[in-house]
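Practice problem. Given the sequence and the SMILES for flavin mononucleotide, write out the predicted structure.
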Amino acid sequence: MEKIIKLPEPNMKGGMPIMQALAERKSIKEFSDKLISMQQLSDLLWAMFGINRVETGKRTAPSAKNWQSNEMYIITKEATYHYNHKEHSLILLKSGDLRHIAGKQEYSQKAPLNILLISDLAKVDKVNELDKKITASADAGFISQNAYLYCSSEGLACVVRLMIDHDLIGKTLELSEQCWATLALTIGFAK
Ligand SMILES: Cc1cc2nc3c(=O)[nH]c(=O)nc-3n(C[C@H](O)[C@H](O)[C@H](O)COP(=O)(O)O)c2cc1C
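Answer key:
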């Protein structure tokens, strides 16, 4: 299994008009077993939270104080990867099927692609834990909406989820104490 997967260049020219994408945006919770293509995965991850201004390293979604605390973890049937936004690549974290950590609902555990948004709260310079989580969650909302709009434009199914087991995710992925899962998404083809 490859340790680093260099994603194809994202296609930044395509897509449907923004108003049409908004008109068609919706949550879908029934998924087929078919995985999206590598090009679609590349486009999706870039659209969600890729770098769109190389000079500053800023991203497609805003973040409080530009802390960029959310990281994207990609869970497939075969392996779990960390998205390296600077290289636009996937770093193998764990091989094997970890879909049981993707969410509490059955459909997420069976779907071929889940993305966990995990914030490193150490990057969020707020005094108390609640404010840190509010800040990280607000950032995660923008990233998630980008996923919805990309999926809407591409005719893919998408749902954002909060029903996740934070402890299970933290333990399984061996995350530091300061890492906290903000939101999860299931993405693919509608059944
Ligand atoms: C913050 C947030 C958390 C959500 N959590 C879940 C969840 O855990 N499980 C789920 O099936 N859907 C979840 N949803 C999706 C909602 O059920 C869905 O957005 C809502 O029913 C409205 O449908 P629409 O997205 O098609 O407009 C969540 C949505 C948001 C914004």
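Check your answer against the key. The longest helix spans residues 129-154.
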